[in-house]
TrEMBL record:
The keyword Repressor does not apply. PANTHER family: TRANSCRIPTION FACTOR PDR1, ZN(II)2CYS6 TRANSCRIPTION FACTOR (EUROFUNG)-RELATED. GO terms for biological process: DNA-templated transcription; positive regulation of metabolic process. It comes from Aspergillus niger ATCC 13496. One of its GO terms (molecular function) is zinc ion binding. Residues 78-97 are annotated as: Disordered. The lineage of its organism: Eukaryota, Fungi, Dikarya, Ascomycota, Pezizomycotina. Residues 17-47 form the Zn(2)-C6 fungal-type domain. It comes from the Eukaryota. This is C6 transcription factor. The keyword DNA-binding applies. PROSITE patterns: ZN2_CY6_FUNGAL_1 (PS00463), ZN2_CY6_FUNGAL_2 (PS50048).
Length: 717
């Protein structure tokens, strides 16, 4: 008999029946070598041991049930989205055609721009290129060290922003905008694609964004590309149509034809096709697809993905020969040259803003400006005018892009950093003159100097186009970049990176002020759709001006610079309050920018230089937004020092009590208050009866959602 008759059963009893007896449900005599039943039947007597069937825990059963549910949902989705089942209908007022979900690429490639974590990561990556260095870098450590030496305050932007993020998260991220967007890749409906192509063609958008050939895209629609969304259709064609519709949908999101569009879903469909696209032979459509995706991604602050897409587009341009004038004789040759200049401008913008190595080497490219490019003497590149497909504008001035490339090569490349100091100073002067010469070719009414002044009337900005605004800001940014190269002359010495040459320091300071004054004038251009386009201009201006303030506290412009920083904090508070009640405070980058400007605003040495009768303006948001506090007064009253805060009539009085001997004449006093409120507000309340320096004693333990507007600070020793 095979097997042992003593097999243990789940109940603990030995199993005594062979397989045949067990199957017939009769008693087995366990005779050797075979039982009586098996002997009479002429079969082998066998025992088969069965594994113990242990009862699963409730947790394991729940996990199994969830796994089974997910499996069934997947099967149901595949069944519903199969070609035989047809496309899912969307019942909208404009009769949107059916859309097809892509189960094989059901991945959210684009982080939600309203997500606190995603916004914080993007914001921290952005400020790393705004003069303060990356977290943990030597430049960041030097920045904090210099701030401490100049102001006596310990500034930690990483901790400050993390506290701001936690504070914002406490306010209820579940209600944040953008969470209800379509997360699944989706093909754009055919009527929307056709409308986008027609609109692009008749509006003249090709002039600024020559990223697609409208006639070629129309031919793809006529060929029924969108009717066969499978391996029989080129991935380049599908990705190009999907990415193009996404770009048009986000540009004209307020138009009635685009109001129900899902641009994020369309661009994710295009991203899902990239693996197939890379395995195909490069074509004009594949180049367009990559450039369109890059154009969609970059304005959302995604620098690294944008760089990777730009490098891919660069390789395709070189493969197709678009960097050479000889391509003009080929079909779509002029369009390829326009795509080259579009990517060339993006490349030079990257090397200027983020100190990245260039993808295009000038000596390997034909840099003859297109014949139909706008003249520098034309005001079409600054003001809103009807666009024409026969005149190229591009998002930025090509001549300025060529100068950006020259600035990098002469001042920031590895070769340039090894040049003698005298040669580098010569290049700084020459490049400054070239930039000024370029400015002089612009119409006199369009010079940046006329706009970046506090007294400039608002009506002068009314007709400016977004391209004109960006061109002015790029001019000032490049001017600062040229003169910022002068500190590296002393990089081999022990002097800090703040040691800018006197002439360059003055120009660097003026450039920072000009950028911030200009942005204050064009605040109407700032919203959550355009924020990342202007973010680096703004943040670089804030930190650059801050450097000059703490380096030159006796400068004649000192008080005006302090007021300028104050006005920026006010500006972002106003931008937030202009939103509807349901969307107010819902865009984290606005919140982080406001608090970053606040952080540096609290630090300048003016707080330690006030004396007995000096006063200044202080804006403290600390993550609290709705109500307003009108004033704060810090004074010495015998045995204790008190901070009395006046406020709107809806709030009870607030008192901050400090023990005897606390020094309030130092910079750290105001920053301690700010950090204390941050730390306490994260938990939703401010503690009462606090007596340690920097603690807040409040008669109202739950301040809820407030804005602190602290003004008229008086410090008395």
């Amino acid at each position: 008999m095979d097997g042992e008759p003593s097999a243990q059963r789940p109940g603990g009893r030995a199993r005594s029946a062979c397989d045949l007896c067990r199957r017939k449900k009769i008693r087995c005599d366990n005779a050797q070598p075979a039982c009586e039943t098996c002997s009479f039947g002429g079969v082998q007597c066998t025992y088969t041991e069965h594994p113990s069937l242990l009862q699963k825990s409730l947790r394991d059963q729940l996990l199994d049930a969830r796994a089974r549910i997910r499996e069934l949902e997947t099967q149901l989705t595949v069944r519903e989205l199969s070609p035989d089942s047809g496309q899912r209908e969307h019942g909208t007022s404009n009769e949107r055609s059916a859309t097809t979900r892509l189960p094989l690429f059901a991945v959210d490639y684009l982080p939600n721009t309203h997500s606190i974590d995603a916004s914080l990561a993007t914001f921290q990556a952005e400020i790393a290129h705004c003069g303060v260095g990356e977290p943990g870098s030597t430049k960041r450590a030097s920045f904090f060290s210099t701030v401490y030496q100049k102001t006596g305050a310990q500034l930690d932007l990483d901790h400050f922003l993390a506290s701001a993020a936690r504070s914002l998260g406490f306010r209820g991220p579940q209600s944040r905008l953008g969470l209800n967007r379509s997360l699944s890749p989706t093909w754009p409906p055919k009527p929307l694609v056709q409308y986008s192509i027609n609109y692009y063609s008749r509006s003249g958008l090709y002039s600024i964004f020559p990223v697609a050939n409208a006639d070629a895209l129309s031919q793809l629609i006529e060929a029924g590309v969108l009717d066969h969304q499978d391996d029989t259709v080129s991935a380049s064609n599908l990705a190009c149509l999907s990415a193009f519709t996404a770009m048009m949908s986000v540009m004209h999101r307020l138009g009635p034809e685009f109001v129900n569009a899902e641009p994020d879903a369309y661009i994710q469909a295009a991203l899902g096709l990239l693996p197939r696209l890379l395995m195909e032979t490069p074509t004009v459509r594949s180049l367009e697809a990559v450039v369109l995706i890059m154009t969609y991604v970059m304005p959302s602050g995604k620098i690294e993905p944008g760089q990777l897409l730009l490098s891919l587009a660069t390789r395709m341009i070189l493969t197709l020969g678009a960097h050479r004038m000889s391509v003009i004789s080929q079909p779509e040759g002029r369009h390829l040259r326009a795509l080259f200049w579009f990517c060339y401008g993006a490349d030079k913008n990257m090397i200027t803003r983020y100190n990245q190595s260039p993808h295009f080497t000038d000596k390997d490219c034909d840099l003859q400006i297109p014949d139909n490019y706008v003249l520098s003497s034309s005001d079409n590149q600054f003001f809103s005018r009807p666009l024409s497909n026969n005149e190229l504008l591009f998002p930025s001035d090509v001549r300025l892009s060529l100068l950006k490339s020259k600035v990098y090569h002469l001042l920031y490349s590895r070769h340039a950093r090894a040049l003698p100091e005298a040669r580098r100073l010569q290049y700084i002067r020459e490049l400054d003159q070239e930039l000024n010469d370029l400015k002089c070719t612009f119409p006199a009414s369009c010079w940046p100097d006329l706009f970046a002044t506090p007294s400039a009337p608002n009506y002068t900005f009314h007709d400016l186009s977004m391209r004109g605004v960006c061109l002015h800001l790029e001019f000032y940014f490049l001017l600062g970049k040229i003169h910022e190269a002068s500190p590296s002359l002393k990089s081999n010495s022990n002097s800090s990176s703040w040691s800018i040459l006197p002439s360059s320091a003055e120009l660097f300071h003026q450039e920072s002020r000009s950028i911030l004054i200009y942005i204050r004038h064009v605040r109407e251009f700032l919203n959550w759709h355009t924020f990342w386009i202007y973010a680096q201009f703004l943040l670089t201006g804030v930190f650059s001006l801050f450097k000059c303030i703490i380096s030159y506290p006796t400068a004649s412009s000192y008080e005006n610079d302090i007021q300028l920083l104050q006005s920026l904090v006010d500006m972002f508070a106003e931008l937030d309050h202009k939103e509807s009640a349901s969307t107010r405070g819902q865009y984290p980058p606005f919140y982080f920018t406001n608090d970053s400007a606040l952080a540096v605003y609290l630090l300048p040495p003016c707080w330690s230089q006030m004396g007995d009768h000096r006063s200044a303006s202080l804006s403290l948001s600390a993550g609290l937004r709705t109500q307003r506090v009108s004033s704060i007064e810090i004074q010495n009253s015998g045995t204790e020092q008190a901070c009395n805060i006046s406020h709107s009539s809806t709030l009870p009085g607030l008192n901050v009590i400090y023990p005897e001997g606390t020094q309030l004449g130092e910079t750290t006093s105001s920053i301690d208050i700010a950090q204390r409120i941050f730390d306490e507000e994260e938990t939703g309340r401010v503690r009462t009866d606090a007596t340690l320096p920097g603690d807040v004693a409040a008669s109202n333990p739950n301040l809820g959602d407030l804005t602190w507007r602290l003004k008229k600070i008086k410090l008395r020793s």
